[in-house]
Design brief:
Elements: H1 4-17, E1 31-32, E2 40-47, E3 50-56, E4 61-66, E5 77-81, E6 90-100, E7 103-111, E8 119-125, E9 134-140, E10 148-155, E11 158-165, E12 175-183, E13 186-194, E14 204-212, E15 215-222, E16 231-238, E17 250-257, E18 266-275, E19 282-289, E20 300-308, E21 314-315, E22 326-327, E23 338-341, E24 347-350, E25 354-356, E26 368-371, E27 377-384, E28 387-393, E29 399-404, E30 410-413, E31 420-427, E32 434-445, E33 455-457, E34 459-462
Antiparallel strand pairs: 1-22, 2-3, 3-4, 4-5, 6-7, 7-8, 8-9, 10-11, 11-12, 12-13, 14-15, 15-16, 16-17, 18-19, 19-20, 20-21, 23-34, 24-27, 25-26, 26-33, 27-32, 28-31, 28-34, 29-30, 29-32
């Protein structure tokens, strides 16, 4: 059945964000959609034909690898580090890659389970492979107090370490610091505080360098990462100037990347930069949420291309909707991926289902199907080797039973204490390449915290 309002919405989305049209039945092999990883605080690089991303995992350091951004979400996590030392094996946050010579270094934050005891550490690879193996190298930039989100930069040929620590008179991680490095795991001499604006007093964290046009741009996150107003601000310093002199850092006014209520993206921040495989394009990787509620949950990794202003400063634009179809980075080989919407012909429904556009920007193409009737089913026919289900979770959602090709069912709980959209609810095991059927059955069950048994069908990614 034709849906003129959906066609108009699709055309408007393309016009506003300069995206690749996906079509009703699927997207081209040279396109992708966010998220590319279900975790937060991404450090994403492209190296020797593959993308690598490391994110916050809490009790470990994990890395995902894929030859294309289009398949990064379906890549398996490889755990490269766990620690038996109880002083540093909990609350492990924000790993960051650094390549020096023939070794890789991973900088991260960890504690003994008490937030105030966070300090920074570095791992070293055994060889020239971002996947490791890694060994513990050192504690770094330890000035006897709270320290997180450290990352090296190179300026005027000298390496420096930048991190976030307590702000004088403010409390909490509200100040950026810099110190010289003598090697990838050692800070020498004293530190210098770099005052940084941010539109709030909570944090100045995740300092990340970007060099271009005779300047080093230092982008950093401000405001509490659980808030919808978590955002990026920026300082910069000219080539030749001493970064250990705080006054040499120019403050750029206002946020450079912030919430986009129109596309349903809140709290964008804690980011990294990477170049396209052919080196011609600049991209930002960051985490964002599909909910404006104050929460640290549901932060997922997204990427998008950015450009440069006439004055030589970066132009990051606005965060794109999670389901916006984007052209892959130049030189990315692509993959035989596609997307299916809940209204497409590949999805058939049995039992009582409702549909509509009431979920707005928390749904793919602003519509979904839902049912709370026990025994109701949605069956998806797809051709590929893996499939993912992304849809709304809410306080009134129940438990689904998901099966592939008539095999054993896996229970999936769609409940959440807050409403969040386009959440990764299910990722199938790797399947033989070919045609398959996925069935979602409404069980009529719910966990005790939920108010009903509703299951949502929205976006289906096929790999």
């Amino acid at each position: 059945m034709p849906r003129p309002w959906r066609a108009a919405l699709a055309a408007l989305t393309v016009a506003m964000t300069v995206l690749v049209p996906a079509g009703e039945a699927g997207a081209a092999a040279q396109s992708f959609r966010n998220p590319v990883n279900p975790s937060a605080d991404p450090s994403l690089i492209h190296h020797d034909g593959s993308y690598y991303v490391a994110t916050t995992r809490g009790d470990r350091i994990g890395i995902w690898r894929s030859p294309s951004l289009a398949t990064l979400l379906a890549a398996p996590e490889q755990v490269v580090w766990r620690d038996s030392d109880p002083t540093r094996n909990r609350q492990m946050w924000a790993p960051a890659f650094r390549h020096v010579g023939s070794r890789w270094y991973l900088y991260y934050t960890a504690s003994d389970g008490v937030d105030a005891n966070h300090r920074m550490y570095v791992l070293e690879s055994a060889g020239d492979d971002p996947m490791g193996p890694y060994t513990f190298k050192a504690r770094i930039a330890d000035f006897g107090e709270y320290a997180i989100d450290g990352e090296p930069i190179t300026h005027n040929g000298q390496s420096y370490f930048l991190w976030s620590g307590p702000g004088r008179g403010l409390g909490g991680p509200a100040q950026l610091y810099i110190a010289r490095m003598s090697n990838p795991w050692t800070v020498t001499g004293g530190r210098v505080a770099i005052p940084a604006d941010g539109g709030c007093t909570e944090v100045r964290e995740g300092p990340t360098p970007l060099h271009r046009n005779g300047r080093t741009f230092l982008t950093y996150s401000t405001c509490d990462t659980g808030k919808p107003d978590y955002q990026l601000w920026m300082k910069s310093i000219a080539d030749g100037a001493d970064p250990m002199v705080a006054a040499n850092w120019k403050q750029h006014p206002g946020p450079v990347f912030s919430r986009n209520d129109a596309t349903g993206v809140w709290g964008p921040g804690h980011h990294s930069f990477f170049r396209s495989p052919d080196g011609t394009e600049d991209w930002i990787a960051y985490h964002g949420k599909n909910t404006g509620t104050y929460t640290y949950d549901f932060r997922t990794t997204r990427v998008q291309r950015f450009s440069w202003n006439a004055d030589g400063t970066p132009s990051f634009g606005r965060p794109l909707a999670a389901g916006a179809t984007q052209q892959l980075p130049s030189g990315d080989p692509g993959a035989a991926t596609s997307v299916i919407n809940d209204f497409d012909a590949q999805v058939t429904y049995a039992g009582t289902w409702q549909s509509g556009s009431g979920c707005g920007n928390q749904c793919f193409w602003s519509d979904d199907h839902w049912s709370g009737q026990a025994g109701a089913t949605a069956t998806v026919t797809f051709t590929g080797s893996r499939v993912a289900l992304l849809s709304v979770r809410d306080r009134g959602n129940g438990i689904a039973a998901v099966s592939i090709d008539g095999g054993p069912e896996q229970r999936v709980d769609y409940y959440s204490g807050i409403r969040v959209g386009e959440q990764l609810n299910y990722l199938s095991p790797v399947l033989p390449r070919g045609q398959h059927t996925l069935r979602v059955r409404v069980t009529g069950e719910r966990n005790p915290a939920s108010g009903s048994t509703v299951i949502s069908m929205d976006r289906i990614e096929v790999f």
